[in-house]
Each structure stands twice: as structure tokens, then as C-alpha cells.
Amino acid sequence: MRRRLVFYLIVGLLFLNACNENGRELVVGTYTDESTIVYSGDTLTDEAEIGRFLELIETTPLSKAEVEGIPDYVITVNNPSEFTMEATVNVWVLEDDKMLFTRGMEGTDVFEVDSMYIEDVNEILSLNNF
Predict the structure, then answer these.
(1) What is the rounded distance in angstroms from the CA atom of residue 67 to the CA atom of residue 50?
(2) What letter does residue 1 receive in the DSSP assignment?
(3) Model pTM?
(4) Cα separation of 55 and 86, whole Å?
(5) What gap in Å lies between CA 108 and CA 95, rounded to an integer?
(6) Cα gap 50→87, rounded to integer Å
(7) End-to-end CA distance of the chain
(8) Burial class (CB in 10 A: 0-12, 13-18, 19+), 93
(9) pLDDT tens, per residue, the chain with 130 residues
(10) In 3-state terms, what secondary structure has residue 65?
(11) Which residues contact 13 (CB under 8 A, 6 or more apart)?
């Protein structure tokens, strides 16, 4: 009886551990119109890279720039193990190698990606391989 109980306990713990290993994932999509987003099939699951991205969007100061039209990209950080969306960022890529973004699906505050992070954000956007 004890062996069976220990066996079920170990199997249960292994199952819970496997569920928690999903962690966070970052996905990139594009708007097909104002209300429809199509996400690429590729995801970024590297926890350090996702952490760097979240730090970037949280520490970027406000910009006086304004954005027009629908964004070029939308970046979403999901946590499937907790069934949550942790962050959504709308990105506009400008002609002069600038990137502007808003936080949240309907965010109105505009932020400008610092030039030292442009390459990092471009790498993330490269996940969008349609």
C-alpha cells in the first residue's frame, strides 16, 4: 500500500513539474485589419530573452511622438501554464530606423525604443516569418 501511495505521489509531482516547465512564450503577429491579428507559428521561449524584452518595455520613457494607423507588429508574452497574457506591445517601425510602441491592446502612451535596443527588437520581430 505504501509503495502504491509513493508511486502516485511521485507521478503527480512529475506531472505538476511538467506543467510548470511551459513557462512564458513570446509571439509576434501582424494586423490584417484593425481588429484581426495573425500570429506567426514561431515562439520565443528563452526566459532570459523574454525577461530582457519585458524590462525594455517597462523601463522605456514616454515619447512625445505620435503614431498613426495600425501597428506594423504586435508582440505578446503569454504564460500558458497560468493561462495568462502578461504583456502586449504594438510596434510601429518608422523609416528613419526608429521604433515606437504602445503597451497593451489599446494603449495610448507612446514610447520610443532606444537606439541601443533596436537590434534586439528586430531579432524578436524576425520571428514573424509568414
Answers:
(1) 25
(2) -
(3) 0.76
(4) 12
(5) 21
(6) 11
(7) 55
(8) middle
(9) 554 433 334 444 444 444 445 599 999 999 998 889 999 888 999 999 999 999 999 999 999 999 999 999 999 999 998 889 999 999 999 988 899 999 988 888 999 998 888 888 888 888 765 4
(10) coil
(11) none
Place of cell 501554464: 81
Nearest Cα residue to 57 out of 37, 42, 76, 72:
76
What secondary structure letter does DSSP report for 101?
Answer: E
- What is the three-class DSSP state of 30? strand
Q: One-letter amino acid identity for 95?
A: E
What is the rounded distance in angstroms from the CA atom of residue 100 to the CA atom of residue 13? 44
